[in-house]
Amino acid sequence: MASPIPDHFSPQNILLIKLRHHGDMLLTTPVINALRQRYPQANIDVLLYKETRPMLEAHPAIRQLHIIDRNWKKEGGWQKFRHEVALISAVRACHYDLVINLADQWRSAILTKLSGSPVRIGFAFHKRDSAIWRWCHNLLVSTDDHGNLHTVEQNMSALSPLGITAAGAKASMHFSTADQQKVQEILARQQVNAPYVVVQPTSRWEFKCWDDEKVAQLIDALAADGHTVVLTSAPDKKELAMIERIRSLCQSDNVVSLAGQFSLPQLAALIAKARLFIGVDSAPMHMAAALDTPCLALFGPTKLQFWRPWGDNNRIIWAGDYGPLPDPDSIDTKTHQRYLAIIPVADVVAAARSFLHD
Question: Is-above-0.90 flag for pTM?
Answer without folding.
Answer: yes
